[in-house]
Amino acid sequence: xxxxxxxxxxxxIRILGSLMKDxxxxxxWVLRIGLFAVFFWFGSNEVFYPSLWVGWIPxxxxxxxSLEYTSSALIYSIQVHGLVxxxxxxxxxxxxxxxxxxxxxxxxxxxxIVFSGINEITxxxxxxxxxxxxxxxxxxxxxx
Length: 144
Known about the structure:
By secondary structure, the protein is mostly helical. Helix content is 72%, strand content 0%. The protein has helices at 10-24, 28-48, 59-64, 72-94, 98-116, 120-139.
């Protein structure tokens, strides 16, 4: 029997092995990683460079909330939007609450499509929307 200071970390290895087995059990991990990458990129850019996203805000959004393109409230709302995207991305990555991350993504993407109309960008967003909706539909019956 080994002294405690020479632990072989078998519990940690067993837990990591179990997590990896669950992660790769289904080809849905490819979809989860892809959506994570997209939402991580957009979310982190919105948090750290919100002024670059001001031009993408639909005018109807500004009218509804009485905002101007130069207001600090608009910059703050872009950063909050980015944090929500990052939350959704990490929920998909960690796999514990996939259905919640996916439904957040569905909500974000459907609002982009509705408020921006159909164009070359929202066609891409429709593809991301269907991917997120697929994940939600697959994971909806899981308790967590």
